[in-house]
Amino acid sequence: MTDFEVGDHVKFAGGQGEITKIENRPNGGQLLHVYTTEGQLRKFPSGLPHIERIDSVVDRLAAKQVDDPLHHDLRERATRLDLAYRYDRFLSLTNNRIEIEPYQVQAAYEILNSYDHRYLVGDEVGLGKTIEAGIVIEELIARGRAERVLIVAPAPLAVQWQEELREKFDRNFILYDRNTVQTYRQSHPNQNVWQQEDRIITSIDFAKQDDVLEALHNLEEEWDIAVFDEAHHLTARRSSDDSTERTQRYMVGEAVANNSNALLLLTGTPHKGKSDQFYHLVSLLDPYRFSHESQITPKGLEDLMIRRLKDDMYETDGTRMFPEKNIEALPVEMTPEERELYNDVTEYIREYYNLAQNEENQAAGFTMVIYQKRLVSSIHAIRKSLENRMRAIQNDAVAEDLPDDVQELIPRYSTEPETLTDAERARVEEALEHVTITLNRSQIDAELGRVKQLWRQAKAIETDSKAELLREFVERILAEDPDEKILIFTEYTDTLKYLRDTVFPEHDIAQVYGDLEQERRRREMEKFEEEANLMLATDAAQEGLNLQFAHIMVNYDLPWNPIRIDQRMGRLHRYGQDRTVEIRNLFFDNTRESDILELLLEKTDQIEADLGMRSDVLGRILENVDLDETIMAAIAEGRPTEEVVADIEATIEERKQALETVENDFLIRDRFDLSDEDREILEIIERSRHGEVGEDDIEALVREFFDEFGGTIKGVRPGPARSSGDIFRLGIPNVLTGDQIKSHYDTATFTKDVAMEEDEVDFIALDHPLVQSLIDYCLDSNRVQGQIAVKVAANPEVTPGILFNYRLGYVSGTGDAITEKFVRLYATREETITTEIPTFEKTLSPNDNVVNSGSTLDQLASKASQLYDVAEARAWDEVESFADEARTEREREIGIKRKHAERYFTDQIEEWEERLETYQQRTEQGADMSAPIGNAQRELEHLRRQRDKELSQLEEEQHVTPEEPELVTAALVIPSEE
């Protein structure tokens, strides 16, 4: 029978662990208390035949029990790769298909170096908040701190998030919508649907539905990180009685915030001028940071918010990262026929818009708005609308005939059109174009005659003056530079097709509009970059267009939604743009719509210059101003254009002052300057891109593993990079299994440059499922016995000695592993320790004569225990120092949070104590205050319990405890002459 001791490592059927206690049994046997590697405490009688002691690494060193050299190298390389990015390097800089910019790395670095990773990211439009969030997600996954990830976005952006994470980070997320959720509920009716996948993207308006929201509230396993895009949609307000009015979207934010560790709120408009709404948004991240919106200051937001504006960002040479924008109007003078059509159609719209208002027919009112917009878009667009109108009247369409799905979308179409998907918006407008206003037969017949006359007028106009001016502008630009690129935006697909087929039939056109599939959209963008001079795009397609290789944009028509105007400009005015962005807006002279929109753009340009902001100003200034209603009311009432413009100008001036107050008094404004204080981020980038682990290490690990376990690698594209090319066909060894791993990959690369050029090629980077599965296999000592080796050093002066490779880490007070790193310690025969590792010529086989009979090796093996003790002591010093750095920073951050929490609860408790005292005084005066007194006492009890819980949790989280150093591999090192 084996004699066991406390501290022995043992293996048993189904696992292994360490003996923590030995209990003597009355019958003379022993009961072993074993702490397993899975973290369980199990008990075994010592006499069981399947329990065996595992020789320690030191025992095996002393006995020269050498493993297969390849297995040793696999185990060591796998460990280095596993830990390569868990400390101070960025996996995402080498592991994806995009070039990540320094300011994006800096944002992620700040978030990752905070202890709870809860931030409001308020970077200006065009800086790539999606990429910044993607980096944080990637790094948390790489550091073993994130499995469950939730992304919540407006419906139009949900698919875009899915595509970007797949294309740029090779991450597959499941898109949750009604169909997906119903399918999951049918297959697992007793399981919370949010527990059935670990990486999920959903829309905010799907998540706010009652049954879905309830499931979000009742999670057993929380999110490791959650991300809200366009987070300003999460609104809550302070009522007059000081209570809080929460929108359903905000309730989604609360449900997720309460059930997630890390939380990122992304928005280009963090503060919309409503201090209470901003307070409630920030409270999702840290409910105890501020007791009231009046306490919010830029300094108080420093470790909770990141916000960079384009004007405050500088390159290493001190120049601005973002060039200027030059916006000019291209006025269009109508022909007499066009003016007559404009006046006649506008008069028709005015009359029937007023009729719709009188009849309280909201749908018909929207119809008239659409017609007015299409009237100033193009002759072709209004002609198509008039055709639709004739058909609608002839078919007796009425508002009540709108399909149920359109009826449900109308409220959002009216107040928040940007939250609709491309398909939803098109569906609504298509249905609205067929709505009539009245059921009176004579009125219907009269309208039909009128519409026919207008249609004939439109059909008779052969020349569209705006199109002619656009053609002249384009030809002039291309005459000066035949390689120039011009992006042309229009609001309607009908207008886009007219420009494509009639105005520019001789040009090779790239085109992007709402119902194009993602793959076709990508091809069109490539066509614009590589071949076509012109791209035609609708507003429905503008999200996700990153076209900074072009710098000229024409707005053929302008949307009446200020947010969409900003978004258009952001397609070109973004990082990577190195030329002045030239924007031209085509306006009809002397129309209300054009005069109003032209004024808005002129004013916005001035305010941007005054405030040092480059985007989103228009949307913030016109927050809650309904431009549709303003313009249509002016048309309906026949108000002089000058009067309407004057009113809007006054509103703009008032809002400008409010915006200045917000910028100066409430919001952070971070300067990013690579020539000054932010230069250190370049060192982190350099360390990450050219650190200890690179593409060659990953390829070497895969090749060695495949050679040993039966995989195949064949070059399919010969090239200069390597003798066998840079794209390969991989046949996967049978020992690797998993849902994410294919049996073979027809085209795969280990090279980032190739992956960025070839979207269809699998990028075998560190976070690829194949590599992760391979690493897990190599680290399983039951599968890869590679702990001990004998290595021959090329520099004999530092030999003999023993190389000890350690895994060092520390945990928080709550037991979470915070970070780990790989440390190599070399112990010489004289018992000195160094991190300078010898250069190795080769690794010896267990059957080598030197292993079995070398005298130097025998002497070294006899000192294994002493050298191990010296190395172990140094490893403890290393991990203590490692943990001390983290402890100091964590204590600082926890101290800040504790101060905020104590202040919050002190303020709240004092306020309720004052209320209670008031109620008690009124009781003494004879009033029945039993109910308010009971409520106040309950609230005080709740606050005190909540305070004690929060402070206790912070106290626990502040602790940082070093883990026992884990010896992964060791190597006896001898000189080459031995």
What does the model show?
This protein has 978 residues and is an alpha/beta fold.
Summarize the main sheet. Answer: 7 strands, parallel
Distance between the termini: 40 Å
The number of helical runs is 32
Helical content stands at: 40-55%
Low-confidence stretches: none
Decide which structural class fits the backbone.
alpha/beta
Spatial strand arrangement across the major sheet: 8-9-7-10-13-6-14
Fraction of residues in β-strands: 15-25%
Shape: globular
Number of strands: 33
Gyration radius (Cα, Å) is: 34 Å
Query: What is the residue-mean pLDDT, rounded to a whole number?
Result: 86
Give the helices and strands, then pairings:
Blueprint: E1 9-12, E2 15-24, E3 30-36, E4 41-45, E5 52-54, H1 57-62, H2 69-83, H3 102-112, E6 118-121, H4 129-142, E7 149-153, H5 155-169, E8 174-176, H6 178-187, E9 199-203, H7 204-207, H8 210-217, E10 223-228, E11 236-238, E12 244-246, H9 248-257, E13 260-266, H10 275-285, E14 305-306, E15 313-314, E16 325-332, H11 336-358, H12 362-375, H13 379-394, H14 404-415, H15 422-432, H16 441-460, H17 465-480, E17 486-490, H18 493-503, E18 509-512, H19 518-530, E19 534-538, E20 552-555, H20 562-570, E21 581-588, H21 592-611, H22 617-621, H23 627-637, H24 641-665, E22 672-673, H25 680-689, H26 695-709, E23 712-715, E24 728-731, E25 744-749, H27 752-757, E26 762-763, H28 769-779, E27 788-793, E28 801-812, E29 817-828, E30 833-834, E31 840-843, H29 849-853, H30 855-862, H31 864-924, H32 930-957, E32 960-962, E33 966-975
Helix pairs in contact: 2-26, 2-28, 3-4, 11-12, 11-16, 11-23, 12-13, 13-16, 14-15, 21-24, 31-32
